[in-house]
Specification:
Number of strands: 14
Distance between the termini: 38 Å
Strand order of the largest sheet: 1-11-14-9
Radius of gyration: 48 Å
Helix content: under 10%
Structural class: mainly beta
């Protein structure tokens, strides 16, 4: 019995080639990749033939057939969503100490100290003329210096650092003829690509009109299924320690320090010497009290410490390498039976495409991604014999 390959399988092969070219561009970065050309037969099963790789010259196609090109450089895609911010790097080394702020204004004068005790009364002399006034007592010892004023307020934060350099451009997208969202009135040609309900489909017929992509798998091949949100990537490594920042600007003048405490009471003055005995007279007057000791000086304001610079943002963690596999599921379709066959991606891979292979007498009525890691194909066997059919899934990490 002669076997044939379904049209969707040929389209899937084209989708796989395009996906492989995109993956190779990611892995190689800026390295050049070859351009492929091939002819597409205008008769069923619409197979690819005479595939050439640049710089080899393209071969001529048969009359009525169409030439297609892929893996050529396309328009640069939109910039991707920024990666997650890396953890904050360690604090940079402290900059050198800025100059001392201007001295704060002198605090107000403290209250006057209490009056010293009155000296003891000298002994009564004999009555005689009034003696001369005794000399003024010596000045009391100066009080101790007041406590140091509180530290001035912290200076303003330094200016924000310059914006980092723009990251490199993303990889080139696959070269396809993208015509936007599916329009049921438009006559699509082989190789035209549309989007529908979050997935992308490639036309496998010319004059392909009013065939819904997610239902009419005979006319459309799934190019990229709508994917689930991927898991968050691993956290990037901690960035290197930032360079020591420049010395910050001089801080503002500190506030006036609080009033120093009242100085202690000066010691009691010495008792004046007893005058010589004279004639009995009136008692001499009491000597004046000693003067109040001077107020202690206000302590100097301590210098303001500099603010440490913010550490640089750590680099984005490394990308995870992609691997691509094909999973086949062969099933025998019973006579005059309808059977759905599902190929399942393993090891945590997700499905990015799929297709089927069968023989004459068995028709695939649908071919679609049935979940994030499975591809299902529904076969109808119109013959009276059991016939083998295969569904396959293209899987990637």
């Amino acid at each position: 019995m002669r076997r044939r390959t379904a049209v969707v399988a040929s389209s899937s092969a084209l989708a796989v080639a395009l996906a492989a070219a995109a993956l190779s561009g990611v892995a190689a970065g800026a390295a050049a990749s070859p351009t492929y050309q091939a002819c597409v037969s205008h008769n069923a099963p619409y197979a690819l033939y005479d595939v050439t790789v640049s710089p080899a010259a393209a071969k001529g196609c048969a009359a009525g057939d169409r030439r297609i090109t892929w893996n050529a450089q396309g328009v640069q895609g939109a910039r991707g969503i920024p990666g997650l911010t890396g953890p904050t790097g360690p604090a940079g080394a402290n900059g050198s100490t800025g100059p001392s702020g201007s001295p704060g204004a002198t605090g107000p004068t403290g209250p006057a100290g209490p009056t010293g005790e009155t000296g003891a009364t000298g002994p009564a002399g004999a009555v005689g003329p009034t003696g001369p006034a005794g000399p003024t007592g010596a000045a009391g010892v100066a009080g101790t210096a007041g406590a140091t004023g509180a530290t001035g307020a912290t200076g303003a934060t330094g200016a924000t650092g310059a914006t980092g350099a723009t990251g490199p451009a993303g990889p080139q997208g696959p070269p396809v003829t993208y015509l936007g969202y599916w329009d049921n009135t438009y006559p699509y040609r082989v190789g035209d690509v549309v989007s529908f309900e979050g997935s992308s489909y490639i036309s496998m017929y010319t004059y392909n009109t009013d065939n819904m992509p997610n239902v009419e798998s005979w006319y459309w091949g799934l190019l990229a299924a709508k994917g689930d949100t991927g898991a968050q990537g691993p956290q990037g490594n901690t960035g290197p320690q930032g360079a020591t920042g420049n010395t910050g600007p001089q801080g503002a003048t500190g506030n006036t320090g609080p009033t120093g405490p009242t100085g202690p009471t000066g010691p009691k003055g010495d008792t004046g010497a007893t005058g010589a005995t004279g004639e009995t007279g009136a008692t001499g007057p009491t000597g004046p009290a000693g003067p109040t000791g001077p107020k202690g000086d206000t302590g100097a304001t301590g210098p303001q410490g500099p603010s440490g610079d913010v550490g640089a943002t750590g680099p984005t963690g490394p990308s995870v390498a992609n691997t691509r596999d094909q999973v086949n599921h062969l099933v025998s379709i019973g006579a005059e039976a309808t059977t759905t066959v599902t190929a399942i991606c393993t090891n945590g891979q997700v499905v990015i495409g799929g297709g089927f292979q069968t023989s004459t007498g068995v028709l695939a009525v649908s071919s679609y991604p049935s979940s994030s890691n499975t591809w299902s194909v529904t076969f109808v066997n119109s013959t009276g014999n059991a016939i083998d059919a295969t569904a396959y899934a293209i899987c990637i990490n």
